[in-house]
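DM from R.C. (forwarded with permission)

"hey, sorry to bug you on a friday — could you get me a structure for this? deadline for the figure draft is monday and I only need the backbone to look sensible"
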Amino acid sequence: MAKSRNNLLGVGGQRKKLSRAEQQGAGSARDADRKAAESKKQELVRKMRERAEAQAATTTEPGEQGGPAQS
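My reply, with the result:
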C-alpha cells in the first residue's frame, strides 16, 4: 500500500489562501471594495428616501390648502 488511506488531514475542507497583506493583518482590498460599495448603496438609499418624502410632501400640500373654504 503506497498511500495512507486513513490520513484525515484535509477532511474539514480547504482554507482560503491568504495574501501576504492578509497574513500581516492588513486585510484584503476586496473587503475595502465591499465596504465602499455598501456605503455608496446606503447613500443612494438615503437620497431616494429624501426625494420620495419631498415628493410626498409636495403632493399633500395643495390638498391641505384646498380644504374647506372660509366665509
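R.C.: lifesaver. The two ends are 106 Å apart (CA to CA).
me: no worries. DSSP finds two helices and no strands in the chain.
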